[in-house]
Request: fold
Amino acid sequence: MKKTSALSAIISALSILISTIIDKVMAFYAGSEGLVLVAQFKNVFSISRTFANGALNDGVVKYTSEFKDKPIVDKYIDTALKITLIASVVFGLVLVVFSKSISELVLFSSEYYYYFIALGVSLPIIGLYDVLMSIILGFKDIKTYFSLSIKTLVLSLGVTAFLTYFYSFEGAVFSIILQVVFGLIILIIYAKDYRGLVFKFFKSKLDINIFKSYSKFFLITISVMVISPLFLMAQREIIVNQTDISIAGYWQAMFRIYCVSVVFIQTTLRRFLLPDLSSKTDGVLIKKSINKTIKLALPVLILMIIGLSIFKEFVIEVLFSKDFFAIKEIFELTLLIGIVEILSWIFSVWMISKGKHKAYFASNIIYGCSYLIFTLILIDIYHLKGLVYAFFISKTIKLVYNYIYYKKEISKINI
Reply:
């Protein structure tokens, strides 16, 4: 577990570094407005990526891990690949056909339509990469998974730095897409045991029963990878309408710093927590895994919060610029919300591992709706601080819901 955590931490750090480079260059050259546009495109990319892989990555990890020693695993892999191909082609066409309208809606101008055409054309590659990486993770082939991830991220880091520095917004957008394209190329070159899966499994018919078993993960994935970005985009719309785009940019900058600590913990732990919880059926063992994860996550997170808070001016200037010093007043409180989020997230991963799709979906809808409602109420009263208060209240509501549901369900197992 320690070795897996260390390797996972390296991958998480590289991923965060790539995003940080994009944000730093955009903040320097385009200010808070440019930061908002990149954030908007990232959200669309996240939604598109989810549809490209059929919204079943977690399902692929779960079923591959669960049936890896049984012949039926071939059918689960085959079905996942077929769903991915169909979904990525269909949604890719939607992006290409409606590129100008999407550009106008998301980036506030139709002149960026060709970004969405590029994304649409790339979706089958993106979807295939994601499902193959999920299969590798499901088989618990940790060595291959981390080797591919690190090679991809190191290459992407160089390309992102180059494109963003020389081509600013355009370079940032294309670097986001190219990261995954490079990933598939590296997988084909280095993962000899997996690159033949596509040709091997496309010869059979789609298994309807397995398709149905994957469908429950649709709600789980959609609630995170589609609904969450939509809520963020809606919130930015509220901020821009009730204040101005610079406030939205300040909040996006603070949110990015917040993500440095929270997303680092989540992505580091998720790679082993989901397969681990998926393979456990005993309530005592599940509790042990969750408690162990909490004891591992919180001390690291608290140390990161203390470190970031002590050097907050330096962090803001390095990641963005002095023009973003307005976020100093909300710095510590925003970071402390990460403790609430990590606790809530651990119970969310448990929900995913046990296929509690309706509860998971409800949790995210409750969070998103409460976030928007409290943003509307508090931004007029407290301005930038109001966004932090809304964030804290909605995250706390989500934690309470997740914990109560977990306690209720785990008590049934122990009966």
